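To whoever picks this up:

The parser on our side crashed when reading a file containing two proteins. I've narrowed it down to the boundary between the first structure block and the second sequence. Both blocks are reproduced below exactly, byte for byte. First block:
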Amino acid sequence: MPGRLRRPSAKLDTVKTLTVSRIEGLKGNLRPPSDKSLTHRALLFAAMAEGGPSRIGTPLLGEDCLSTIDCLIECGADIEVFEQSEFGDRPFAIVTRERAWTSPDIPLDCGNSGTTMRLLAGVLAGKPGLDATLTGDASLSRRPMRRIVEPLRQMGAAIMGDTPPLAVSGRQLTGIRYMSPVASAQVKSCLLLAGLSASGETWVSEPSKSRDHTERMFEALGIEVMTDGDLAVGVRGGQSLSPLDFDVPADISSAAFLLCAALVLPASNLRLLEVGVNPSRTGVLDILSSAGALVEQEGLRDATGEPVADLHVMSASNLRAFEISGSLVPRLIDEIPVLAVLATQCEGTTRIRDAGELRVKESDRIESVATGLRAMGATVETYPDGMDVHGPVELKATTIDAAGDHRLAMAFAVAGLIASGETTIHNAQSVETSYPRFELDLDRVAVRS
């Protein structure tokens, strides 16, 4: 029966272990989970919208997005999540705001979600009279927040803390021109959201282009987005978001695990449905092409400014090593762990650089990926900003500690699908944050001998 979604009381406290064995291929049609980045933004923008309710179709109901829902409800939004409707079995959410943003009675628990904390901080900083404390789990509490706190303070925000918890007291903000030292969609989005409630114009420039979901959705919802070249975007204060009607496409970052697995398994013929192919997110497709793989985009169409297509992939042979560096990194930062697994099956040495951001994700993904791949028989050298992976090599099963990092858990699950023996992945419960049905989907399309 439809109704308000309630978070499971256990959250992610239950330790989960994945066991994975070699299979022959992936075959069939499958829709990966909905895009996490777009779900966060759709929920937040709907809670900010004026003029009526918003409908969000097929939101991702993983732990990170549930954290965003919980925080918005605590701040006065009315969010009803229906796990199915009379039109089908897909979930949807109705978001309305009939009262002003209110100071929450309890700390806002962002869980493991850096997107929730960084984007919400940008909104709350510009709400005079509102006071809130943003907290997170042990992993999020180690992640850098100075990158948003410093520019928000330059805008006049009152924020205590450079790492979580962050204590935010809403103030009247003033627009600034900010040059971000890192290419980060979260930093950019945080400041653009703050800029909507600031006086004057707020501009953000980056060293290279990060994903542009916020700008695309802003424009679709009536916000004028200004540009200065390819790397600077700005907004004028005082603009209001219109209600949205948006169907969230499937997440290309989640699809990447299935794409890489299908390429290196010999009996694969897989079609991934309704995948978002925003050019700021399709670096993984560029890398797969440079490695000699063919991933066909079928039925390209538009959804509220976001391009969507079905992706068709088959087994590939004679894959070659590739290079990830420079402006390509922000377009595939989340896919690097599974691309490193793919690199073990490519001829030559794959070189990954300019990816120091991986060291301050949910874990130090550079060292964790290298340590796990070495345990499976690969030769990997690490550097402050990346790694070299030599291939091809026949991987052997081992035991991996995913350390609560969802992308590590799924990357090593892909490695386990091609390794000899049975791979065991401990502390894999965080897969629920982005791909709640990961095991079920793998089992559904797996071809076994």
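<<boundary where parser fails>>
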Amino acid sequence: MEHLRILMIASEAAPLLRTGGLGDVMGALPQALTEIGHDVQIALPLYSAIDTSTYSFESTDITFPVSVGGTLYPTELLRYRVGDVSYLLLYTSHFCDRPGVYIDPATGTDFPDNDERFVWFCRAALEAVIRLEWPPQILHCHDWQAAVLPALLRDVYATTPTFQQSKTILTIHNLGYQGLFPGNQFERLGISEALNAPMGPFEFFGQVNFLKAGIVMSDVITTVSPRYAEEIISSEEMGFGLQGVLQKREKSLRGILNGVDYADWSPNKDPYLAYRYTASNLSRKRMNKVELMNEAKLPVRENAPLIGMITRLAEQKGLDILTDAADELFARDVQLVILGSGDARYEALLQELEDQFPDQLKVYLRFDTALSHRIEAASDIFLMPSRYEPCGLNQMYSLRYGAVPVARNVGGLANTIIDVDVDPDNGTGFLFDAYTGEAMLAALDRAIARFQRKRAWTKIVKTGMRQDFSWDRSAEQYASLYSELLS
């Protein structure tokens, strides 16, 4: 296989910054690609949210102006290295020196100039590799924040020698977030007005849509599981208004399942756990459960399964059906620990439920990496009642940690969980179809009944712990796609 120069363009990347699954992917996929011989660099804004006292950045002594709508923003390029992956950190004070990443903490809403911010970022990424004299063969753009880059490549950089052999890939991590802006703001971006004409790449019912432009103008589109690729072209609910645009690009759309970085997510070597364990010493998993129950001030109930949830508190994640069914859920002999933050409405509802069911529910309203690992290790069941789920990572973490997933049969959940009652020999979890509290509770009841049969439960746990969703397979699929595209 040819060794390729690949530039990843993303708005977040572990370990420097992660607010969700995109950051995890960007911390793992580039490393996996370098391990099979490719030269990978990641372009990332140097937000003030990145702790510069924790990480040591290298100066490149490269500065350059970046034009957005005729205004020049002086931009500095710094480097950070993790193994063989080089992070290209792009900084300009006007767009980077502010609290928050996407959302203004003072208002709780998106920064109103996010369109200009991410046009600056995409142009800065292209300008950086020009100055580094490192012509990328693949420009791999992730989500709406990078989706404007293929349009810039065709519009502003069409004759630039650095990119004459470059191909573009757009990976959609979540179609529900599209980068929508008022139509009258397009003129301030410095992109040809023709691209925002009616039915043009950017135009979307009178608004500007960055993700639509990326879908129309990239060479190939991928998304993060095979099932989700099917859902977004066949379902109005899953397509979020872009299903028609995606149908026109169906031959260029692929679903490649995300992977898990088992260097970070393995219970036998997890530094966040009080007791490390494997499938052969599950008694130590129970010791982690007791530790968490004590930490959460929940009574330890030997025969009551502990259900874990680690989630963004948003409608997508099934919080509406969970809260609606709470009375019926807690009529069962179960306990639930939830870690997450997000929609203020769900935060308030969950706090009310915690007050109502203090012996059965503990809610942590924050982002906490260490606690997320402890919840995975402590949980008997992991609940993911998502309305839609492009890939999902927590169900794959849960399988490795012996927390049996109960999840809706959508997206990446369907690609990674085998229902125990469909395939008793190879089953790893419990799936439900209808997006209702009743369907969720029925799946939980199946899991609870199996939990009471210890030998049958242990078999499910151990089958799940043997599953392998490492990044190696995903990286090979991306590498094959790159080679196919270049040929």
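After patching the parser it read the second block fine. DSSP finds 19 helices and 20 strands in the chain. The radius of gyration is 23 Å.
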